[in-house]
Specification:
Methylamine Dehydrogenase, Chain H, 2 helices, 4-stranded antiparallel β-sheet
Length: 377
């Protein structure tokens, strides 16, 4: 079942955008052929790329190998089969990897580096933990209504865990789900600290967190919500600060700029919205990035660039200049929707005249592609 909507509605005339291409050099330097499963999540950790797929696999690939300019079969140092259904999201914090799964679970892995250039993953825990489940089950007050005829403990996700985020200090894990909840976990002992039930009116597809602890969630209900920890009679809880509503269809992806002053949202209305802080508690829509002809499925930020992947099988690279966003490049080559992106600065090939970036993309065509982008200074 998919919660990614499609829509032909696109009345964005009230926003400024610049559909103009600046000089930028780009090419695909490598394609890693997959099997019949699609790539559902990507994340970079040091010298390795971690991939999650629809067939339950988590793989570790050496970034150096991926930068070789040829196509090859997927070869990894490690392949893990975990859970049931797709691996929907991967995040890294220190020596741990957290994975979100279609089977309603979150799994925690320790990254073990047995040799200089080899890694393996050791399973540490499945969330909610047995202790959390047991303690919650024993008390009736810990049970919540999840549907008309079903109750569950508050520590459980009851549908696909769609996205994860980790606090900057690595101490807190945030998870969102198609069950419409936002959950907060301790990232060291894996205890569930809080559950925001009915955080949205429909499936939640995306979550990002800022360095000050503000949490941004995006949903199929077309809304972006901002949550902040505050004191209540029951103790410290996340409360709703504001709701952002401009998209015409469900939100599928969120990303924060490096300085955290700009939030980017991608939706099934084919638009990327740029939101800037108007005050401490609110953000205002300041621009729209238009060019994709189908749903926006994923976003990634590197330096001052925004990368967007779409169901139209392309990746676009954007740069903002004084609130006007320019499309620097359109990357074409996937044979299916681009489901996930991650990116990094390529310091080894940057120069005094240009900066090099590496974009890693995964799609429903089962392939992973590595792209090199040179941006003139």
């Amino acid at each position: 079942m998919s919660h990614l909507q499609t829509s032909d509605s696109q009345d964005d005339s009230q926003y400024q955008y610049c559909n103009y291409h600046l000089p930028a050099t780009h090419h695909c330097i490598s394609t890693i052929k997959g099997d019949n499963s699609y790539i559902s999540s990507l994340v970079i950790g040091g010298k390795f790329l971690y991939t999650g797929s629809s067939n339950k696999e988590i793989q570790i690939l050496k970034c150096d190998n991926l930068r070789a300019e040829f196509d090859h079969e997927k070869l990894s140092d490690c392949m893990i089969i975990s859970g049931n259904g797709a691996v929907k999201s991967l995040v890294i914090s220190a020596d741990k990897i957290f994975s979100a799964h279609q089977d309603h679970k979150i799994r925690v892995w320790r990254v073990d580096e047995s040799e200089v250039h080899q890694q393996k993953l050791t399973h540490l825990a499945t969330l909610p933990t047995f202790s959390d489940r047991t303690l919650s089950f024993l008390s009736p007050k810990n049970h919540v209504q999840v549907s008309r005829h079903e109750r569950s403990t508050w520590v459980h996700h009851n549908d696909t865990v769609s996205a994860l985020a980790v606090s900057r200090d690595g101490l807190v894990l945030y998870s969102v789900s198609w069950d419409r909840t936002l959950k907060i976990w301790h990232a060291t002992d894996f205890k569930c600290l809080e559950s925001v039930c009915n955080a949205h009116d429909d499936a939640i597809n995306a979550v990002v967190v800022s360095s000050n602890g503000d949490v941004y969630t995006g949903s199929t209900d077309k809304k972006i919500k901002i949550w902040r920890m505050s004191k209540s009679p029951e103790g410290e809880k996340h409360t709703l600060i504001t709701t952002l509503m401009k998209h015409k269809s469900g939100i599928n992806a969120l990303a924060l700029s490096p300085n955290e002053n700009v939030l980017y949202s991608g939706a099934s209305d084919r638009l990327i919205m740029a939101w800037e802080k108007s005050d401490e508690d609110d953000m205002a829509a300041v621009g729209v990035l238009r060019g994709h002809v189908k749903s926006i499925l994923c976003l990634s930020v590197v330096s001052d660039l925004l990368c967007s992947g779409s169901a139209d099988e392309t990746i676009r690279i954007w740069k903002g200049v004084e609130k006007c966003y320019f499309c620097l490049a359109v990357l074409e080559g996937h044979r299916g929707p681009v489901k996930c992106l991650t990116s990094e600065t390529d310091h080894g090939r940057s120069s005094d005249t240009s900066t090099s970036y590496l974009i890693y993309s995964g799609g429903l065509d089962s392939d992973i592609k590595v792209w090199q982008i040179f941006i003139p200074l």
